[in-house]
Amino acid sequence: MHALDGIRVLDLGTYIAGPYCATVLGEFGAEVIKVERPGTGDHLRRFGTETDCGDTLVWLSEARNKRSITLDLGDPRGRELLRELIIGADVVIENFRPGVMERWDLGYEDIRRLNPRAIMLRVSAYGQSGPLADQPGFARVAHAYAGLSLLAGEPDGTPVTPGSTSLGDYLTGLYGVIGVLLALRAREVTGRGQCVDLALYESIFRVLDEIAPAYQQFGFVRERMGADTVNVVPHSHYRTADDRWIAIACSNDEMFARLSKAMGRPELAAPDRFGPKASRLAARDEVNALVADWVATLTRDEVLERCRDSEVPAGPLNSIADIFGDPQFTHRGTITRTDSRIGPLSVPDVLPKLSETPGEIRWLGPELGADTDEVLGTLLHRTAEQIAHLRDAKVI
User: Fold this and answer.
1) Residues 67, 34: contact at Cβ < 8 Å?
2) Lower CB density within 10 Å: C or N end of the chain?
3) Taking 90 as the threshold, does the pLDDT of residue 58 lie above it?
């Protein structure tokens, strides 16, 4: 049994945010039908490292468990087929620019008339309303607009994109999962679906901790701090004697006392030195320098061992090469090896881990249109001759 067995999802999205939501739902049993443009498909098929099968590694990993069909939604016949699919769907996911679905007579009100129980997830750069609603945007723009990018990087350096990754897309996809699950739960009571409206920038803004109340209350504008953290110290990255890096996180006075003991400098945690957090914050550079000087005398493993012995939160700054050899990653199965169209492929495993109804990877990203005939034949009762006619007309 899977937690979402019996739930049918239509994934009309492109790239990452909306489709990632569908991917997570599919990992836990939902039947996900990926609707793509004939001939070209989702742009995600060409986003990332190319492979011999014609699709990228990103597609193979992130389109897992989906059935691919092709429909030309610019053609009235393609839209009519989609309407028929919506009648039997539980969830419809789209991330076109606001207004596109309405021009096709497939906005939420149209969908609700077709299927009052359907839940519609709408993902866009700025949401379905507001002065910027019709503007395009991707994760990089969301990071910038929401205030994250200006906080990332060294104080006097160029603001950077954290991790060179599409964080905003993945976060929004996860909020999409939450929204869909909440709507499914509400439907159990009301019998009705609803619309979930998500903006990429809002997902980023929501995880910037106290940045909003700190500005409203005190006018505090947080700036770039490199590896440091605004409210605590030492809470940064430090270079070891063997030219490796570790993260140390002392979030309270007790942790700093334990770190001082591990350093062989327990006096640093005295009340008249750096024991109180306020004293450490006032002497941030000095405290960081003391920790950095100590770390620089030891190898990475030596520092980590001393921190662990003293119950000081610390960890290595791992590269992906480090991760592949890390025993914790191995033990937890955080990376799993799965068959794909290019052979065995290592991809991130399913999250979260459920004890009774766990998710699974049944297959990786499918070939474009691989399931068109089956879906149209089985769900919409089209004959082989009708399907062939649609294909000749380039509707599928």
Assistant:
1) yes
2) N
3) yes
Contact 32, 9 (CB under 8 A): yes
Report how far residue 212's alpha carbon sits from residue 210's, in angstroms, rounded to the nearest whole number.
6
d(CA 288, CA 22): 44
Query: Per the structure block, which two tokens stand in for 190?
Result: 């009301």
Pair 9, 85: CB distance under 8 Å: no
Gap between the Cα atoms of 77 and 71, Å rounded: 9
Active-site residue set = 169
Report if pTM > 0.90: yes
Beta bridge partners of 379: none
Domain with CATH 3.30.1540.10 in the chain: 235-239+245-316
Query: What proportion of the chain, given as a percentage, has pLDDT over 70?
Result: 100
Q: What's the whole-number mean pLDDT along residues 190-211?
A: 97
Residues forming CATH 3.40.50.10540 domain(s) in the chain: 8-206+333-392
**Fold annotation for 235-239+245-316:** formyl-coa transferase, domain 3 (3.30.1540)
The Cα–Cα gap between 34 and 14 comes to: 10
pLDDT (average), residues 257-284? 97
Q: Is the dihedral of CA 235, 252, 305, 326 positive or negative?
A: negative
Give me the half-sphere count of Cα atoms (radius 13 Å) on the Cβ side of residue 247: 11
The C-alpha atoms of residue 80 and residue 103 are separated, in whole angstroms, by 14
| DSSP string computed for 108-160 | HHHHHHH-TT-EEEEEESS-SSSTTTT----HHHHHHHHTSGGGSS-TTS---
pLDDT digits (tens, 9 = 90+) for 302-342: 999 999 999 999 999 999 999 999 999 999 999 999 999 99
Q: Which among 6, 44, 45 is positioned nearest to 25, based on CA atoms?
A: 6
Question: What is d(CA 213, CA 231) in angstroms, rounded to the nearest whole number?
Answer: 14
What span, in angstroms and rounded, lies between the C-alpha atoms of 249 and 246?
A: 10
- CATH number at 8-206+333-392: 3.40.50.10540
Give the tens place of pLDDT for each residue, 149-187.
999 999 999 999 888 889 999 999 999 999 999 999 999
Q: How many CB atoms lie within 10 A of CB 282?
A: 12
**Distances from the Cα of 179 to the Cα of 61, 70, 123, 174, 175, angstroms:** 23, 27, 11, 9, 6
